[in-house]
Amino acid sequence: MLLAILNIVGIGVFAASGALVGIRKDFDIWGIATVAVLTGVGGGILRDLLLGITPPSALDNWVPVTTALIAALVTVIFHPSFALLRRTIVVLDAIGMGLFAATGASIAIDHHAHAFAATLIGMLAAIGGGVLRDVLANEIPLLLQPADLYAVPAIVAAAVVAIGRTYSDLPSQVWVVAGLVVGALLRLVALVLGWRLPMAPRGVGYNRRRRG
């Protein structure tokens, strides 16, 4: 029950982030709703397609899409106040990321995927919606920007579940919760401490072009 509630919260938060991008890009209400829904359920759809689950569960059940639409409507109405809730949204986003990565990996294990494949599928389930959002908004996906860690916490969360469920007899719920907690905490700690992955060193020619 708790995981189902967190899943709905994650869809809502992701959908709200998509709606905010649509508002910033001056999309009409249809465009905002489209970006919001694809951000909210896109990762789950990608996960199901990779596992051969048809139709995807997000489309075979009215709750995920409806949740995303409600989140989009609330965002459109109250978006001037969302700046005041930024920290709360960041925390919920981290929880949603960890949850989608963990449940994505667990569902992949249930469909007989190996630990490596389950880890990658879990990561894609967590980041897929955000990539769709950025592509639709004609922006460089946040995944490829050096602003902060996102894919790394997602893949760690998924790996905890995939390895734990493959090599341990503990109940799957234990590993899903463990993956969720590890992924969300790693994401939040990275934000607080400003952790980033290293970048390629700048060459001499690059620096000259910058100065010119």
UniProtKB/TrEMBL annotation:
Its main location: membrane. It comes from the Bacteria. The chain crosses the membrane at residues 6-23, 30-50, 62-82, 89-109, 115-136, 148-168, 174-195. InterPro entries: Gly_transporter. Residues 5-79, 91-163 form the Glycine transporter domain. It is found in: Cell membrane. It is a multi-pass membrane protein. Keywords: Cell membrane, Membrane, Transmembrane, Transmembrane helix. The keyword Transmembrane helix applies. It holds the Pfam family Gly_transporter. The keyword Transport does not apply. PANTHER family: INNER MEMBRANE PROTEIN, UPF0126 INNER MEMBRANE PROTEIN YADS-RELATED. Belongs to the UPF0126 family. This is Membrane protein. It comes from Gordonia jacobaea. The lineage of its organism: Bacteria, Bacillati, Actinomycetota, Actinomycetes, Mycobacteriales.
